[in-house]
Write a structure and sequence with these properties.
The chain is mostly helical. The chain has one domain. Helices cover about 75% and strands about 0% of the residues. Helix 5 packs antiparallel against helix 6. The radius of gyration is 22 Å and the shape is extended. The N and C termini lie far apart (about 75 Å).
């Protein structure tokens, strides 16, 4: 049976389940906001414990990364991501999950060929692109962004 584009689109529309957009938006907002609120709470908590600002700025993201790595290792973060969708993509936690998830998946293949070879499978392109773009931006800023003095 040969189908044209219109018939194919009708078949796809019938076979695809409806996506509850409002529910997805709400869950992403709640979960993403909760992750950000946790980060702010950690920030304020570390300040309350008497750490100086430079230390707090290091400790808060490290704590979020650690908690995300632990949650990913136990499968909690993936379950949360299944229901919250984009809400778990808050940059620091989403990136930590992208690093730990392949490590957990390939650990049975060994430390070098499993974990080592696949650790940056998801995050590697992000790191490479980010490094290249920041270098190019830095060079452009150095030559054209500085005020020229005579």
């Amino acid at each position: 049976m040969k189908t044209d584009n219109q018939q194919y689109e009708k078949m796809v529309h019938r076979a695809s389940p409806a996506s509850p957009h409002a529910k997805n938006f709400l869950l992403a907002f709640i979960v993403g906001g909760s992750i950000c609120a946790l980060g702010q709470g950690l920030y304020l908590g570390y300040e309350k414990l008497g750490f100086i600002e430079e230390q707090v700025k290091i400790m808060m993201p490290c704590t979020l990364i650690f908690l995300t790595a632990i949650a990913t290792a136990f499968g909690v973060f993936d379950k949360l991501g299944k229901h919250a969708g984009a809400g778990t993509g808050v940059p620091i936690t989403g990136f930590a999950n992208a690093i730990v998830a392949p490590a957990m998946e390939y650990h049975c293949e060994g430390m070098i060929l499993g974990v080592g070879a696949n650790l940056f499978k998801l995050a590697g392109p992000v790191l490479a692109y980010g490094s290249a773009v920041s270098t190019i931006y830095g060079v452009i800023y150095y030559f054209f962004g500085m005020k020229w003095t005579v």
